[in-house]
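hi support,

uploading two proteins for the ticket. first:
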Amino acid sequence: MSSEQKIPETMLYEIWQKQNYKGSLKTYNGDDIEILDSGSHNAETAGPDFKNARIRIGNLTYVGDIEIDRDYSDWKTHGHNIDNKYNSVILHASLFNKNHQAYVYTRNGRKVPSVCLFKFIANEIIENLQNKAESDEETPSKLKCSDGNDSVPFEIKEKFLLELGIERFNKKCKRIYERLKELEFLRQLQIKEPVIGYELSAQFREKQFNHSDFSHKEIWKQLLYELIFEALGYSKNKVPMNHLAQNANMSFINKIQVDGALVEKYEAALLFIGGILKPEFSTKDKVIKDYIDRISLHWDSIKPFYDGEFLEDTQWHFFRLRPQNFPTIRLAAGARILKELLYDNLINTLAKKITEIHNLTVLINSLRSLFVIKSDGFWKTHYVLDQPSNAEVKYFVGAARADEIIVNVILPYFAVYFEMFGNNNLVKKIIKIYTVYQQRSENQIITEVGMALNLKEQINRTALSQGVIDLFRNYCSKSKCLECEIGKYVFN
């Protein structure tokens, strides 16, 4: 093989599923490996690549997970050996294993057989994988219209993407309104809701809500709390962040005594309830120990008020995230936003700015500034609990993530808020802000599809970039080219 680097792991998944080998797989010890069920591909969450597989090694049948790496060394490089999510792996498969290592070890110390796939795959298959990888490198975008959409007038692209962007905004508003109704229904029934995944009754589905039902400040605070935390979690940690905000809800947070250590008390609640910090944690580092001691004392003082559920540390994802996006940093940001929400009247501040600032550029900059959070305290010099960071953390939330919060949370939230209180002029103003907002996106879909559509300059316009996400997910990825206005122009 001329270049081992050219075959990504994703191409190995297809080989695993098709089981197209030249002869029977064998371990380095010579035991036959029979694949009874290759398992289901885990494309959504962090963890092993295939779940619930069944294999026979020698005379023993195993049920569990499969991890596939390009190289044997990736097991440690990717941190699988210290990640509890990989404790259920029953077979490690890699394309290369130059040192002929027969096993990998899980975090709980279990020895797992490792098989090298390279010698069981036909040369022509390897060559085809190489050629496909090289082709994909030349054309990173998967759009079928990539070679033809140059002929599509910009006006057609802009009009269609703007329609999709507005439709996506309206979907967010609808989702927010549905959650608002849930919170009000639970409030009326006086149901405390630390539990995730409750089922709402038929009574809720049949209930007719009036605008007057939504006059209670606490449901609006809880709603914004959940939405901001979900946004802070971004794609990989948005689910546990949302669950944490529902578990450590406003009812509990309001019971925490206000003093000069309030932010650290919030950090204590979020870290312990989130399962990131365990009571048995210990360290010899003085700075870390001092922080943990303070946080633990805070938790001891507030835990009598908490009777909800705790998250597990395995629910949080650190792998393949930039340290700036680690959930620990996001929780530090969340603790400070909680203080703003509860004691600095964040909702009223936002509403006042939207109402009184007429210059939209000034308004956008003013809104953004509320969510750019400079670092301070322990987390200024730490990305994780057990070791200091190599470089100082400058921001808990930078300008790009602040933009994401404004676009995906604040604007749709206040569109619903103003509609509930009958201010249609401010709802129209929110839509106007959305259509002129400019942001630098970190979203790979926006970047790659925008480039493929030759919209490099215009794609910073939020309404269009949101339309690009909707275009890719609902048209491009589903090959609905002839239902897309751009595709119709290219292929007809």
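and the second one:
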Amino acid sequence: MSVANLMSKAGHEVVIVNRDVKFGGLAEYGIFPNKLKLRGGLRKTYWEILERPNVHYFGNVTVGNGKDLTVEDLRSLGASALVFASGAQGTKTIGVEGDSALGVYHAKDVVFHFNRLPGFGDKPFDMGNRVAVIGVGDVMVDIAHWLVRYKQVEQVTAIARRGPAERKYNPKEIRAVCANIDQAALAQEFDRIAPRLAAAGQHPGDILKDMNAEFAKCEPLKSKTKMGFRFLASPRRVLTDAHNRVRGLEIEETKLEPKGNDFSAVGLKQYYEFPCDSVVFAVGDRVDETVGLPYKNGVFLTNPSSTGNEPDDALFQAYDEASGKILEGVFLTGWARKASEGLVGVAKRDGEWCAEVVSRYLAGRPAHTRSAVDKTLDRFKTTLQDRKVDAIDLTGLRALEAAEREHGPSNDCIGEFKFGANQEMLGQIHRRRDRSGSSARS
């Protein structure tokens, strides 16, 4: 949406192709549900962009190998440039034994579940009473927030391979759950790891003081859930019962070793069992290789000739390692370019940088005539019709918005009504279109 905003303002014709029916991506299905003011502000901005006459929206259209359109399909339709802002749709684990057991979840799936993304909203997520969340970033906090506030489980434990000084969450975000942090247990955890922190040149007392200072403006206590941390702890194996259900984690103790300006975790070959009923991996994301762009080690490839300084053009150019050439006119932005990098504001900035790069690229190419633009749009629409793709336009989005508004606010953590399945949304859109058409005819 950030790219579309700037490119359309500059007078370019912009076609937005979206896998979901509704626009917004993680702004709609990824930020914590109760941030209604933030989501509402973003929606208002996005509606303004979509209503511009030179912006054309096609929702419910998938792109990738075996999908509605392939990358080559898109490249053949005549657009001057393609920008992939498709996020990081793949799931990332740390590859431990037992990570396919019942009760093992990926953070993205859990977030999609409580935000009611179609395909995830109605899936059961049985968390049990004791939940281990692997990771100490903002996504961990969102997962913990949902577990503490809405699921009200007994215990949530964030598990980190490194120490408390390497925690990654935003201090403002931790306020959502810090009232539930078990202070006595946190002090005991620091006592447990203090010798290893000191051996790395860190000062446990100072780190604990800094950490507690972040808990000064906690949101009011909403449940009896206890939240804790386990540091210098590397999950090695998911332990299961006779029914392949999670019963715990085998954890290896670690120590900190300097690595450049940071520290890495090194295993000590000392193991113990940590009891839990479910495990959530919040360890980052990877892109979806089935999209069909050149891919390696969880990321789409960009031009290696980059200086590394953003917004260097090469950082945004898709690159084919096999041929050693860039994909002419194909660009990456947001989490499709750098998975798990920052929040909404960072993605917006990345889109703005990408728009600059694409603008420079287009400045060196002949401009399309109005006739050529119209032919490209017609070709695109005809291709979707020929393939019987039920693409949703702006009129459909307005019909869906009206249907959701009729339901009023919901009682779950979202605080607003959302249809949980694509077929429900499409059915609402078509029923309202049919009704509108009947009224017009009569």
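thanks. also noticed: Residues 130 and 155 are 5 Å apart (CA to CA).
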